[in-house]
Structures are given as structure tokens and as C-alpha cells.
Amino acid sequence: xxxxxxxxxxxxxxxxxxxxxxxxxxxxxxxxxxxxxxxxxxxxxxxxxxxxxxxxxxxxxxxxxxxxxxxxxxxxxxxxxxxxxxxxxxxxxxxxxxxxxxxxxxxxxxxxxxxxxxxxxxxxxxxxxxxxxxxxxxxxxxxxxxxxxxxxxxxxxxxxxxxxxxxxxxxxxxxxxxxxxxxxxxxxxxxxxxxxxxxxxxxxxxxxxxxxxxxxxxxxxxxxxxxxxxxxxxxxxxxxxxxxxxxxxxxxxxxxxxxxxxxxxxxxxxxxxxxxxxxxxxxxxxxxxxxxxxxxxxxxxxxxxxxxxxxxxxxxxxxxxxxxxxxxxxxxxxxxxxxxxxxxxxxxxxxxxxxxxxxxxx
Length: 362
Known about the structure:
The strands form five sheets. This protein has a three-stranded antiparallel beta sheet. A two-stranded antiparallel sheet has the order 1-7. A two-stranded antiparallel ribbon has the order 5-6. It has 15 helices and eleven strands. The chain is elongated, with a radius of gyration of 33 Å. The chain has 362 residues and is an alpha+beta fold. Among the domains are: 8-131, Winged helix-like DNA-binding domain superfamily/Winged helix DNA-binding domain (Arc Repressor Mutant, subunit A, Orthogonal Bundle), CATH 1.10.10.10; 239-362, no CATH class.
């Protein structure tokens, strides 16, 4: 079922909290979104529907109608148990119409699901807006809709999702994830590979991939220009928000030289990296230099070495200039020296202080 692309709904972020009672299955997630899009205009938080209508609109019908209905009812009851909805129904739910109400408290920023995993604190709260356009991209597939919504949420907070987290959010095996993402790449998912860098042990590692949702049918076949634009607006902007060095932050040329893997680093950018006091700039600049030295392209390594030589020459030149200036200042001070015997013995006399108010009182 397609919905009006201009409509928007809100999906609770706690639905992604794997390992907790609030984590939704793909079927529950799709059903929950569908019920919101089916809300009647005058009823902002409730939907009047039936099991048969849900099966029809979500395309869940098979030859076994009883099993289809049982599955829908199972998902409805599960959403009730997890606290997402309430149901007002008189009679057998398989046969009658009923009202589903959305529980608003679970969308509040005060409603937080938090747990610790491998020493890392995980926090889920609030909601993510889901447009009708993105809902339609999922084509009634709960797993696809979860991927779209989770991608949008994490992009909103500048967070790239690793594969190890995707399998938990979607509740699938890593091999299944690869198959799904290959399909999604053809339909709506742009995946941008993270930069490669060399760690402290000299091993080559890759940063987490970033993901962006877009309707591939509306895009040209060649996505080179689109990819560059998306990277600039997503990945690089995320990095810029963590920079505290004003020189790097405000100078796009320097920023790109340090953070963009496709931009050649020149002396200006190299100098800014060497002299920055921002830890984030320092770490990412080091990653780029390490990657250049570890590259199979020997020229990249030679450029890195050349930049360091130029910087050391610059420091030496600066030192020599300072020494020359210091000598000139010392010579000037010697020329201006006046022996004590030529200093005047004149001492300025102080004027006597007179209390004017004394004379004004008479």
C-alpha cells in the first residue's frame, strides 16, 4: 500500500533497543507504522480498522487465511504488551472492527531505555520522523522500513552504524544482512565506505561506513556527483561539528585537506594539522598521513615525507628570523644606552597641595 508522500509519522526510537522488552520485530514495526498512517483525520492518535483491512493494505494475504489473521493478531497483542498501543475491541478481533490508540508517553524524551553492553552505554529515547515517501520505499517490508528509519535517526545525531549493530537492530545474521543491503542498495540505500587509516600497531583499518536514504528511481545512473554532495553534507559535516580549531573550522580549503580523503593535503593544511591544539583534528590528520605512508601508491608516501621536510625547514627559517630580530633589538638597545654620568640630576618639584574647600566655606 502506498501512502501520501507528504504525510509524516513519528516512530519511537526505543523500538530499536535490542535485547529489551521494547525491541520490535520487523512485522511489528511495519504494523505500527501502518496504523499511524491510517489514522482518521479527526483522530490524531487512533485508528479504526480490522484484521482483514490490515492484511489487505499490507499485502499479507496467503492461501492460509486463518494463519494470516492469527499472525496479525499476534503482532497487535505484542505491541500492546510492549506498551506501544492500546486496543478497544468488542467481540472476536478476527471478525469485528476495533480501535487502536497510540501510547504517546513512549515518544517522550523523558521515556528512556538504557543498558550497558561490552562496557558501552546504550541509550534509546525520543522519536524519529518518517515521511510517507520513505515509507513507500520500504514496499511493505518491515525490515526495509526499520533500516530506513534507523538510518535517518542515526544520521540526525551524526552516528555511523557498524555492521555489528545492524544485525542486532534488525535481528538477523550477518550473512542475511549482506543480502538485504545488496537489495536495498538497488532501491534506496546509498553506502559510502569509511576512510582507511593505519592504527598504532601499523595495521590498516577502515572507519565505519555511512548510509544515506534516497529513492534510486529518481537518481541518475551515475552517482559520482551525488555521492560527493552527500558526503559533504553528511560525513564531512559530522566531522566539522567536532572541530574546535577555528582556523580549520572556518577555512574550507584547510578542512578538506585534513579530513577529505579525496583532497590532496598541501603545506597550508599540513602546517595547520601540525600546530593545532584540537585533539580531533590532530587524530584525523594523523590518520590521513598514516594512510598516505601505507598506500601502495609510492608518490603518496613521498608527498607525506616532503611535507614534513618542508615543515621542518619552515620551523628552522622561523627560528633564524627570530634570532635575527633578537639581535637587532639587542643592538638597538645598546645604541640607546646612556651612561649614568650623563643623566640629569634634576628632580621635578611637587606642587603643594591646597585644600580649595577651605577657602570656599567662608
